[in-house]
Amino acid sequence: MDIQVTPEGKIEWLCDACSGVIADEDGAIWCDAVAGQGREEEILKWHESHTGAVPIDQFLDAPGDLEWASLHFACFAEGKCGPYSIEVERIRSLADVLVWSNHLLGKTWISTATNWGLIMKEIGIAGGSKEL
Ligand SMILES: [Zn+2]
Q1: Which of 8, 43, 68, 119 is the most exposed place for a label (fewest CB within 10 A)?
Q2: Which of 13, 19, 15, 30 lies closest to 78, judged by CA?
Q3: Backbone conformation region of residue 110, classed left if phi is above 0, alpha if psi is from -120 to 50, else beta
Q4: 68 within some domain
Q5: CA angle 14-89-78, nearest 5°?
C-alpha cells in the first residue's frame, strides 16, 4: 500500500492496482474480515505450539499478517479483498488515523493478523515523524 501525506497533512491513498491517487468517493482501503479472523486463529495456534527458541526454518513458515489494500472502486477485483472497508474520504488526516486506529484495534483480528500497525507507522513517517 502506497501512501503520501501532503505538506498540509492530507493523506493521499494510492491504488494498489493502477498506482493512481484515489479521489474522494472513488475508492477505499480494504481488508478481508473473514480471512483476518481465520488468520488470527492460525497465528494464535502457531504461537501456542512454538514456545521458547524456534528454529529459523519454522519461524520463516509462521503465518504472516494479512495486508490492507487501497483501491479505486473501479479497480476492485471481486475476491481480492473482503467487504471490510473505509472510504478514503473518511480517513484523510492524521487525526482521522488516530480515531480509526482506536476503533480498529478494538477488533483483535486487526491487531493480531493484519498490517494495520505498519500502515500507522508509514503514515506517521510520511507525515513527518522520525522512525524510532
Ligand atoms: Zn486504481
Answers
A1: 8
A2: 30
A3: alpha
A4: yes
A5: 60
Asked, for residue 15, whether it belongs to a domain, the answer is yes
Domain-embedded: residue 1: no
Q: Give distance in angstroms: CA of 13 to centre of ligand 1.
A: 10
Question: Could you report the per-residue pLDDT of 89-110, keeping only the tens digit for each?
Answer: 999 999 999 999 999 988 888 8
Hunting for cell 499478517 — which residue is that?
65
**Domain interval for residue 112:** 9-48+57-126
Question: What are the residue ranges in the chain where pLDDT is below 50?
Answer: 79
Number of domains in the chain: 1
- DSSP string for 28-86: EEEE-HHHHHHHHHHHHHHHHH--SS--HHHHHTS--PBPPEEEEGGGPPBTTB-SEEE
